Amino acid sequence: MPPRMNNPSLVVPDALQPLLDLSKVIGGTGVPQRTLDLVRLRVSQINGRLYTLPADLGKAVEADDRLPQVADWRAASCFSDAERAALALAESTTEISGQEDPVPDAVWEDAERHFKEQELAALVLHISLVNLWNRVNVSTRQVPADWR
């Protein structure tokens, strides 16, 4: 299906830079880039917005063969406890429909054990930003892309 319109962040040009700036701020908070990449990949998988690994992760796949295992991260033994906590938080924060308490205390507390407050805040913002891009792209039928 062709896109319904140009990407809204390009149609409303003043919207794009703040989103890119937020992504840059998140990247500077101390959360490992690899963790942010894993979260971005998992959120996009959940939202059905990832048909292949994003181009910027392509080179990383050569160095990190864990990326193709992200969809089944619970069964894979190759992720650190902190990465697992971030992935669980990403799933809970993304899959909120029909949930009385989408982010259970156990998920939140596990994330708190592995991340300082600023890092945890950055993870929440990152998960939300990836969801924002996914939803913008879904509603306007954009081809899945990396807008980081």
Automatic annotation (TrEMBL):
Ranges of residues in domain Carboxymuconolactone decarboxylase-like: 14-91
Molecular function terms from GO: peroxiredoxin activity
Record Pfam families: CMD (PF02627)
Superkingdom of this protein's organism: Bacteria
Name of the molecule in the record: Putative carboxymuconolactone decarboxylase
